[in-house]
Amino acid sequence: MAERAQPLQAQDKLTFLLSLVPYLMDHDRVSVAEVATHFGMKPEQIREAVRLIGVSGIPGETSAYQHGDLFDISWDDFEENDQIVLTNRVAIEDAPRFSAREAAALIAGLQYLSALPEHADRAAIASLMAKLSRGASAAPSQVAVESTDSDATLALIKQSVASGVQLEFDYLNSRGEFERRRVDPLRIESLDADWYLRAWCHLREAVRTFRLDRISNPAITDRAISFGAEDVTLPETLFEGSADDLIVTIEVTPSAAPLLADYIPDGAVTTERDGLLRTSVRVSHYHGLKRLLASMPGVATVVEPPEARAAVAEWAAAGAARYE
Amino acid sequence: MSPASPPRVPVEERLFSLVLALLATESGLTKNEILSTVQGYRQRYNRSGDNSNLERQFERDKDDIRELGVPLETIESPGQAGNNQNLRYRIPRGDYELPADISFSPEETTLLNLAARVWREGSLSGESRRAILKLRSLGVTTDEPVLGYAPRVRVRDAAFEPLSTALEKNVIVRFGYLKPGETDARTRTVAPIALIQHQGRWLLHADDQDAGATRNFLLSRIVTPITTTNKRHAAFDATATGAALAELEKIWDERTATVEVEPGTDAAARLNKRRGTVQLPDGSLQLHYSDFEILADELASFGPEVLVTTPPELRAAVRDRLLRTAADHG
Which of A106, A196, B216, B241 is most buried, taking the most CB atoms under 10 A from its CB? Predict the structure, then answer.
């Protein structure tokens, strides 16, 4: 699995123990490595859990945790061959239900992903959500995310990857320039309501991030791709800083500051004065900055440099002038 | 440490042993039976003295286990109604186990793994992580999809976590809410019904105790920390969330604005791609929206690339925003 193995809290560890037992019951003999891969954990986390299960059980009639009241494993197989064989089990017979909140998190996640081509079969998704509800210990109802229509561009991107051919499209960059781009799609990413394609761009000969809503006239080509997802290591962050970036000082009201979080570089110094936060944001050029500031009227202001102030002022004034 | 100190039993071992003991009993165990016999408690149980620390530990453990969806129930001993010391605890197997007829196909499992990855921060990431562990106990193996996805919904409003906890516990909360156009926040007392993400913003759908009706509150306009009261309210019907989302969709569907966009600009590309946008015969675009202020902010960001034609209030709001930004940077 792609996700990293993380240290677990007590509740996670308990959930894992309650999940691992039914899995082991269904597998007569399984290696620690295989279980680790299946659950997305480190082998040592599996061994630790198995050691605990192997000595756990119920007080039993004697209240003394007698041998027959405990789980047992084949300890030789475990210690010598890293194999797990459950030889006695107690109390647990099946996988646990989801909690209401767990089921709600998955259902809301599914709702959010409704633009994906995998969701085209709406009846199948509805039945999956119903199964999650029925498999929960109480009605999962407390979180919901708006669903969207299937996105045609996403479907085309998927087709391009599946058939190993390049995709081309018109792309309007944030400077307002149109270009026909040819790319090898690598990964689809999203942040809240915004969707992005990360791809190898044949025009720039580098990995680039494209906003899906700035892509138009996409088409599948007959040229084979040069790079697949396995060939390129994508950076974790969607937006990378570059040496040419401009640093701008701004003042923002504390309640609006989270809206700027993605633009504030690591190590930026934030000070407070007269109830306003003063900090720096990193932008690749003023074309992006003026749009950002114009969407935060009255709550964020550029302090310096003067050229940045002027760029924002001109943009807003030109917009207002259209209403004269 | 004195030689008499009991050996320390890890938390997960105590919780695991408690679940096993309560699953295995039909008639239930009394608190005293649990504390004196179950692994992790028995080592600290004092046969002749005070066990109040251990009892408090048991109370916290019960909460932790229930939070994971384990249906720990209490039953009264026959003929001993009202006697707390003789309450019996058990976990009914039928309510604990996933119903036998529920299974997930490899395709469904792949989708659920992806759905879980949407939540990478806050309490929802813990919930999804545990849901996926339970899903994997069913042993279904999956393939990674041909096209990799890295979806992410952020939960960065400070109010999200305390509201999420209040939702679970069915308690009334209070917070200061700043309505757009007002200069002072007003205190609202509400019974939370659901947290809903609509148009990229988190909303709290709640029963406003003063208004006596349900209201939607944008989390970003909650300007004070959430005060959790100890007043509980009756649980809401499970259909209330779906109904609230449908109501938001209805509002979004009913509210429209018309704008002219400069061809070939960022505004033209992005507003055309916005959900529900219709191009009118004269070339202008009809947009749907649910929140007037949010749409005005969004349209203002496009500067001269957009001219709002209707409704007139939106026209004025966008113009005022642009004048304000120009003045602040002049």
Answer: A106
CATH number of A246-321: 3.30.70
What is the architecture of the domain spanning B11-96? Orthogonal Bundle (1.10)
- CA–CA dist A222, A96 (Å, integer): 49
Instruction: Please check whether residue A100 is in contact with residue A134, taking contact to mean a CB–CB distance below 8 angstroms.
Output: no
For chain B, give every domain's residue range. 11-96, 98-154, 160-247, 255-328
| A294 vs B102, B118, B301: nearest CB | B301
How far apart CA A278 and CA A52 sit, in angstroms, is 52
Count Cα neighbours of A140 within 13 Å in the Cβ-side half-sphere: 31
Q: Taking CB atoms and an 8 Å limit, are A213 and B273 in contact across chains?
A: yes
Q: Which of A27, A94, A229 sits opposite B148 (nearest CB)?
A: A229
What secondary structure letter does DSSP report for A323? T
Q: Does domain A163-231 have CATH number 2.30.30?
A: yes
**Rounded mean pLDDT, B268-292:** 91
Distance from CA of A223 to the nearest CA of B (A): 18
Could you report the per-residue pLDDT of A247-263, keeping only the tens digit for each? 999 999 887 787 787 78
CATH architecture entry for B160-247: Roll (2.30)
Distance from CA of B72 to the nearest CA of A (A): 11
Residue B166, classified by CB atoms within 10 Å of its CB into exposed (0-12), middle (13-18) or buried (19+), is buried
The pair of three-digit structure tokens given for residue A194, joined into one six-digit string: 């915004």
Q: Which residues contact B199 (CB under 8 A, 6 or more apart)?
A: A146, A193, B252, B289, B290, B291, B294
Burial tier of A185 (Cβ tally within 10 Å: 0-12, 13-18, 19+): buried
Cα A149 to Cα A144, A219, A227, distances in angstroms: 16, 20, 30
Q: What is the distance of C-alpha A4 from the center of its chain?
A: 12
Q: Which whole-number Å values give the CA distances from A181 to A24, A168, A210, B307, in the listed order?
A: 51, 5, 10, 30
Residue ranges in B10-92 assigned as alpha helix (H): 11-24, 31-37, 52-67
B137 to chain A: which residues are within 8 Å by CB?
18-23, 95-96
Residue B19 at interface with chain A, using a CB cutoff of 8 Å: yes
DSSP state for residue B40 in the 8-state scheme:
T
Cβ of B112 and A174 within 8 Å?
Answer: no
Nearest CA in chain A to B299: A295
B92-108: pLDDT as tens digits:
999 999 999 999 999 89
Looking at the predicted structure, is the pLDDT value of residue A51 above 80? Answer: yes
Largest separation between any pair of C-alpha atoms in chain A: 90
Confidence of residue A24 (pLDDT cuts 50, 70, 90): very high
A227 vs B77, more confident: A227
Q: Does B278 touch chain A (CB under 8 A)?
A: no
Domain ranges of chain A: 10-88, 97-150, 163-231, 246-321
Which residue's structure tokens are 């504030």? A264
Residues 50 to 109 of B: which have CB under 8 A from any A CB?
64-65, 67-71, 93, 95-100, 102, 104, 107-108
